[in-house]
Amino acid sequence: MNNRIIAIILPLIISFDSISQPIESFFDACKNRFERVHYIPSLSICKKMLEENNKNQDAVFCMGKAYYGAGKLDSALVFLDNAIQINAAFNEALITRGYVRSVTGNFTGAHEDFAKVLRLAPGDSNINFFNGYAYFSSKSYKEAINEFDLAIKVNPNDEDAYIKKCEAKGFLKDYPNALKDITAAISRFPQSSRAYNARGHIKYSMKDFPGAIQDYSKAIEMATIDPKSNLYEYYNNRGNAKSEANDNKGSIEDLTSAIELIPDKVQAYNNRGVAKTFMNDFKGAYEDYNKVINLTPNEPSAYQNRAQIRMELKDYKGALEDFNAALKMNPKEPAAFYYRGQCKIQLKNKQAACDDFRSALHFGMKEALADINKICK
Length: 377
Prior knowledge:
By secondary structure, the chain is an all-alpha fold. It has helices spanning 3-6, 20-37, 43-52, 57-69, 73-86, 91-103, 107-120, 125-137, 141-154, 159-171, 175-188, 193-205, 209-222, 231-244, 248-261, 266-278, 282-295, 300-312, 316-329, 334-346, 350-362, 368-375. It is globular and about 75 Å long.
């Protein structure tokens, strides 16, 4: 396969160079922790309480938690605001509002709520952890590390804080210290599948793919005894590491295992499409990218990846349609212009191809200059 084409297929890998999946994984971990600590009632129970006394802080707070549980975060914030208006020192309401604010992107408001709770009732590692989550989500990794350190100081057995501190250092590319920290965490929590998974992330980012594979394998092994495990993530991660280590057959096996666990999650389909591409199984890759597009119809890179596969299958008209769709969603993507230009060359539309090469160059793809000089005279 043309090396320049394969180079822009972007797997949704678990790497500190790619924010999406660690943040998603981190959100899940925080959500699980929040809901372990805070009971989430049903709306029907809370509505009955509110009917009995609509000025009662507990009834109003109950509605805020119930709306959070129902996924109606704007409504949750209205009731949480009202509960705090009734009692400005209502710690549970402040904690919940701080968490919901961080989930909805109001990080400043979240920090204000958590800071107030810590002034009123210091010594709760959960508050430092959730404040760290808010900093982490806003990419303020140094501040997140400080909060996770405080959580660990309050509770030396706070496994979540150890792991997320390591991940924050990974995003700062402080890999040696991240590796040191997570190895210490594994010594403290030897049955933690998540700690092995996190160390696999660090080794992956350091391009130690055999080491990453070893840690992801240990995470999979420990998952049977770790109630906080995420087997989908572990198989997906090991599949990516195997692909980087040129074991594409093993990569496909792991990614297929991930898909069997959660068939409607996109990452493993995308990554399996990459592995199949490296094995020249273009029909198989095409099927996987179809699934990616079905699951994420508004993701331009999915159309761009499928377009490249269609070019390999010599379906140039179909490839052109996909490049057009990708550029409609992201009209400044230089690679999409460049490879659409290559597609148009195959369709004997030289002038339109040259226009695309010039657009690719304009948006920063220097490789397009050689094609302009060679073809567009």
